[in-house]
Amino acid sequence: MKLAEALAHRSDAVRRVEQLRARVVASARYQEGETPAEDATRLLVEVDGVLDELEVLIRRINRTNASVEVGVGTLTDALARRDVLRLRHALVTAAADAAAGRDQRGQAVRQLRSELKMLAALPVAELRGQADRLAREVRELDMLIQRVNWEADVLE
Fold first, then answer.
1. With 113 labelled, which of 22, 56, 74, 95 sits at a CA distance of 20 to 30 A?
2. CA Rg, the chain, in Å?
3. Is 128 in a helix, a strand, or coil?
């Protein structure tokens, strides 16, 4: 199985666990004289099996990520780098927006003539350029990770 397939299976398993959890919670109590919509005990057994499969899958994915070399270190290193680049990009973009007079939703902050003039404490153009470079680096690294995901076989 390729790593990309294992990641898709992991995503499906996580989604299945969440669905089963919601069904367990919904069926955990019922009114006297009624029958519950589903057997909560059976659902708990089912979710336990899915969690066991998920644990095995996560271990295999992590083992693979830690051993596959991608040029900049292991796949784990590349994933950590991508996560930090995304955080850095979000920070720089938010700082540029704030300095440009935009609120957290990206809308321009209105200012009346009678109010004191607001000045940018940060170089907006420079921050936008930095954000563009970071976004490009994230995209390039993400493409590398995706390529490796379809090439690498999952370890046992």
1. 95
2. 24
3. helix
